[in-house]
Amino acid sequence: MALRRISELRHQTQDKGAETSMNDKTYYISTPIYYPSQTLHIGNAYTTVVADTMARYKKLRGYDVLFLTGTDEHGQKIEKVAKEAGVEPKEHVDKIVEWIKNLWQTMDTEYDIFIRTTDERHKKTVQKIFKRLYEQGDIYKSSYEGLYCTPCETFFTERQLENGKCPDCNRDVESVKEESYFFRLSKYQDRLLKHIEENPEFIMPQTRRNEMINNFLKVGLEDVAVSRTSFKWGVPVDFDSDHVVYVWIDALSNYITALGYASEDDSKYKKYWPCDVHLMAKEIVRFHSIIWPAILMALDEPLPKQIFGHGWLLMNSGKMSKSKGNIIDPIVLTQRYGVDAVRYFLLREIAFGQDGNFSNEALIRRINADLANDLGNLVSRTVGMIDKYFGGKLPAERKAHEIDEEIKQLISKTIEDVENHLDKLLFNEALADIWNVIRRVNKYVDDTQPWILAKDESKKAELANVLYVLCETLRIVSVLISPFMPNTPKSVQRQLNISDEILTWESTKEFGLMKGEVEIAKGEIIFPRIDIEKELEELEKELEKAAEKAESVQNQISIDDFKKSELKVGLILKCERVEKSNKLLKFQVKIGDETRQILSGIAKYYEPEELISKKVVVVTNLKPAKLMGQKSEGMLLSAEDENGNLNLMILDDKIKDGSVIS
Question: Which of 193, 280, 625, 642 has the most other CB atoms within 10 Å of its CB?
């Protein structure tokens, strides 16, 4: 069926009142699809954790949720990296995609669809979309000449550059001229502006909305190149083999191709589209709030309900990035503190939509203050007192305290506030409200003084009531925090022996649902306190090791790169110390028919005379260098032991000097 015909039929069925996402209790949330890289850091994980939290919350509220994420796998950058590694692009990205999926699993994210732009279904639909836009005149062929950032795969005008560099990554841009197909973005400028102005929550937060209106729409939109001829790794334009579809049509279309748009089975598209919210970091809001809606307008399809561009995680006053060397490995953090602690920090510390600062010290202090002192302490003292005063089983007979009503009213208002905050993606405010309850109930323990009540047999019913109020509060809190922290609630619920039927969102709105007799199963402390100074020192070392390991992976070379090194056997004819240097030895090395002077920094480990007549490995195609004013024409290979000592690689005497090592 033709693409246009599918669109027409869909609108006809909507007009007849067919079931669609507009009247079903469905919720579709997406993150941007990530570039396949093994340097994903805690900042990248932020978007996915937020999306997962929102998806879990909506499921608790009874919504049929679809959560989409994935990888954007085409483009010049990937083609180049794969070529340098001596592998096919698909082989290169396959390995990294598995690594990314493992990372999302580590962060306890439960996505429903993971789309790859190399998926055949995606590619076929992208070709259909491109062809339709071309046939109806929204795409035309011309030539492009301008400035291009390869790492960001983005074209810029001169005025968009910052100090002559890419405004997003601060790298150099290059001048590009090539034949290209263009999308008539300018055609949709007025319609886009009207839609944004009439729908104040279409782009959030307000600062992003103002930026798109004032810096782009009112300045004037230019048509954008949507194909490339300078590389081949992409979705081919099926009617012009010289071109591949560029990212604006390819990657952005994933939000509907993942749902089966324009395929034989488009039931998910009919059910979930339009998307409730596209979540992303602020630097790509422009593409999602201008180019993507314009493409949907051209396809005569509904626009997403909201584009939300959150801020950056900053470290040392700068955005986290590999180029700045300030990335934090989320796997290290989750291994040390648990995924819930990391998720809590990201969602509590940062006002969603704004930039937020990350530091190891802030993370540990937040864990100690909120998770150990507040929540962990409340759980420990509750199960501890039930165990101590009632042998692990709280009696049904209770006598209410006058403070109880205040606690109930606070919880009731908090649930209402949390719902309002989460519906507006105000995660930190929702958590702040929940923690107000936790702190108030900790104070409730001090107010009622159960250790005093325990001394008077006639006060046992009052004591039981105090502990029951703590149990019920923890039941409700465990449900409220479950979208943010998937594992901690299970530990709380297990220790208090809470049944599943009173762990729904709606059950939080009724205080007193736990059975008359509470039997606890005392467990380990859920968040032990951390020694900050000692922990910071150990964490820094572990993060450095992780960074070095990641760097070594990134610096791996292909067999072709290795072949560029020329290694030969050399015979040391002469060796002496270099005057005024405690580090260098000067060698005369015979390599077949030639003799070279080579300087090496191993004077600390050898006496010159002991090396004469030894056969060694020489890198012979290095550019000559001057060390301490003396010429060096190569390098002698050494190995470093666990104590940092250098050991010259000495070969068997039988090997002839000048022999090639391969």
Answer: 280
